[in-house]
Design goal:
Elements: H1 4-11, H2 16-26, H3 31-42, H4 48-79, E1 84-86, E2 93-95, E3 101-103, E4 111-115, H5 116-125
Antiparallel strand pairs: 1-2, 3-4
Helix pairs in contact: 1-4, 2-3, 2-4
Length: about 130
C-alpha cells in the first residue's frame, strides 16, 4: 500500500500553494498565519475563507482523486488486466475507464476518443 505522504505529494505537486497550506496546517498554524506565510513565500493573498475552503474541500478532493488513480492503476495492472486507450486530443494513454473517458454507446470500446480532461477544458474555453 502507498503512504499518505506519497499520494499527497503527487496530488499537490502542480499546486505548491496547496502543498504549503497542508504543511502549515500540520504545523498547527491558524488561517491568519497561513495567509501571511503565503504572502511572504508566493506573493499571493487569499482570504481566510478561501484558505479554509481549500483545506476542507479542494485539497482533500485532490488527494482522494490521486489515491483513486493509483488504486485503479494498481488494480488494472496487477489484479485484472485493464484496457488502455490513447486520447485523440492530448495523446496521453489512459485507462479505458469511466473516470477518464465518457461513455459512448456508438463507439466500439464504449468510450469517447477524447478524455474527460480534454473535453472539459474545451467546454470551459467555449
Amino acid at each position: 500500500m502507498w503512504s499518505f505522504d506519497e499520494i499527497a505529494e503527487k496530488a499537490l505537486a502542480d499546486e505548491p500553494i496547496y502543498h504549503q497550506i497542508v504543511v502549515d496546517k500540520i504545523d498547527g498554524m491558524q488561517n491568519i498565519e497561513i495567509q501571511q506565510d503565503l504572502l511572504s513565500k508566493f506573493g499571493k493573498t487569499h482570504s481566510l475563507e478561501y484558505i479554509s475552503s481549500l483545506w476542507r474541500k479542494k485539497i482533500p478532493n485532490l488527494i482522494a482523486s490521486a489515491a483513486e488513480d493509483q488504486l485503479l492503476d494498481w488494480h488494472y495492472l496487477e489484479v485484472e488486466k485493464g484496457k488502455y486507450k490513447r486520447c485523440s486530443r492530448c495523446g496521453q494513454i489512459k485507462l479505458a475507464h469511466n473516470k477518464y473517458f465518457s461513455k459512448n454507446k456508438t463507439s466500439k470500446d464504449g468510450f469517447y476518443s477524447i478524455c474527460k480532461c480534454c473535453r472539459n477544458s474545451k467546454a470551459k474555453k467555449s
